[in-house]
Task: structure prediction
Amino acid sequence: MNRAERLVLWIAILASFVAFLDGTVVNVALPAMQRELGGGLTTQQWIVDAYLVTLGALILVAGSLSDLFGRALILRVGLIGFGAASIAIAAAPDPLFLIIARAIQGIAGALLVPSSLALITSTFRGPAQARAIGIWTASTTAALLVGPVLGGGFVDLLSWRYAFLINVLPIAVTLWLLAILHHPDVRNPDAKVDWAGAVLCTVGLGGIVFALIEQDRLGWSNPLIWGSAVIGGAALIGFLVRQATARFPLMPLSLFTVRNFWAGNVATAFIYGALGIAGLVLGVFLQQVSGWPATLAGLAFLPTTIIMVALSERFGTLAGRFGPRLFMTLGPLVMAAGTLLQLTVTADVNYWLQVLPSMIVFGLGLALTVAPLTSAVLGAIDPSRSGIASAVNNAVARIAGLLTVAMLGVIAGGAITVIGLHRSIIVTAAMFAVGGVCSLLGIRNPPRTAAPAVGEGGGAQSGTDSPVIRSDSSDATPS
Result:
């Protein structure tokens, strides 16, 4: 890689790191937030989902904004907004203020991940792209490594409020790297933003999530609950109709005519839906039921993240060489097996016998899955559409997690007890297994050709040993 390519990779890593770091911090900070600000499981669900509602709905807008204004500018706006919202969260006086600040943080977060991934997919192609995505995956997974540990340390030694300020440094470094990156930022002045579609998507997700979370308190017979569900469902249907008829849709349905793109997104929905509740439930259980301090609860996930960091780049490279199908099939099935090992967990949890084996197996499955999945979905699309493809895939992942967290009260039976944990484990394992089966049946390995080509069957591949690399200017290539 030359200097510009290395800077692009670092910027993509750090920008995504910020968003991922916050998610892991929240999971270990929830019990401390509840003790200080009040509220039960419903409040905890809203703290997580307020972020995911705006993130999932507006990630699609971010793709259009990146095309219109350039990815570097959108990344800058997202980073500054994310930092400001983090400061507001740290100063929250009550749960309502905190939930609103989390929603604003989700708006800023929506600008980060798709734009950063699009920088990679428009700069690298073929095996080089798969390797770059593997490096990105391994590096951003460090957020899963340091987030729970740092967050838990801040919660135990200082306050949960300080835990939300730990992303200030990576934000500052990323802004500096963007300033020194002398790289043309591709813009399309003819791009349009489908604001009507954005409103329909936000109303749809918000209505469905409100009904799922609040039904435990108000009941399905309450007009506010079923009315919200009906309005949300109608808005989501309206969103799909809008995308089929709009001149400049947020989510071009033509993307789903590419087999690996639609199949990969179906797998993404099940896999990331399961991931949405996997770490959340166990982290809260260890603190609220088993009485662990936040630091130890964060350290419990350390083996998984170490395995991810150690193996993601390797599996990303292998997926670029042999195709993603095998990895995307085995990975979720291994994660399902690792999750089921947690059925041995009791209130007096024995970490070495009941948790550690699960973390090791789960980490192996996660490393097998993430980089090949990302590479398969984005590598199937022409680089000129990588921004919107990345946005759609990220939206699917975040919305899947959003809905499973919203359903957590139903899944766990209203409380995270031993029984609630075990019910959640069974549902989570089943979703991982379905994701693996979807990959087996739907994903096709791209053909290995002598020259790089992007087409209906998948991403570019190279028949030579040298990686295929394209500069960011390839983003201007018409599809």
